Structures are given as C-alpha cells and as structure tokens.
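ugh ok fine here u go
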Amino acid sequence: MHIKQLVMISLSCGVLACASPDLASDGSKDSTRSGRTDCIFRSSIRGYTVLDESNLIIEGSGRRNYHVALRRRAYGISSSWGITFDSPTGQVCAGFSEVVFDGHLDGESIPIASIRELSPEDHEDLLIKFGKKKPEIEQTPAPAEVKGAEVEELDTADTDDSSGN
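structure:
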C-alpha cells in the first residue's frame, strides 16, 4: 500500500514540475504564455541551435521548436561536441531536467529554467533577436536632413506693382 502512495506522489511531483510557472533565464515571468511551461519527450528531440550561453532552440518531431532557457550561463556550450538531456522521466521539463554538454572534462550539467513551444513567427523572431538570421524585410532608415534646401518665398506684392496694374 505504501508503494502505491509513493508512486502517486512521484507522478504528481513530475506533473507539477511540468506545470510550474514559465520563467525566463533572468527570472522574469513570460507574459505571453501566462505561466505555462512545456515539456518535450526526450525521444522526439531531433536537433538544437545554440542562441547564446543560456538560450537554446530545440527541434522536436513534427516540426515543433522549443525555446529552452537555462538557469545560468553554460560557458563553452556553443563550441561543445554535443548536448544531452538528463531527466528522471522520459520527458524534459523545466524545474527538474538538466542540459549536459561536452564542453568540459566533467560533462557539466545546467538546470533548465523554462521550456516554451514556439510558433513559426516566434521561432524566426528569436533567431533574428540573437543574430542567427537576418530579417527578410529591411527597415528603411529615417530620411536625413539635407542642409541648404531651404525654400525662399517671393513677395507677391512686388510683382503685381511692376506689371503696371
């Protein structure tokens, strides 16, 4: 009977960890997702893109992309041989899963702060924000002020008198 209770408590803790508030790597709450965090099945991970030392984009099955924010910087992650995910279950969730990367001799692991599924627009915006992609539409610069282009008004009263009217 005690084993059933322990199993239920363990499963409940796992579910609660996946439903914890979505925190960005700086600790602020992401207002676009209203406190929701997503989980990724470890077997569905197809690849990743390092945005910076504390942000990744994980490519999942079904052309899904996820923004993963780490709790602290992972120095050297962009030049590491690869990363893996350490999780007590088959799902990678914020709060109890970690990213392990081969950047150091000890295979450093860093806790995951948040995981958020990205829409195609959010995915492109993140790539542009972190300099991994150039925007398709270039914004035109504001027109510069040109010196010497002043307009001089003519006095119309002088031209009427000279015509003899």
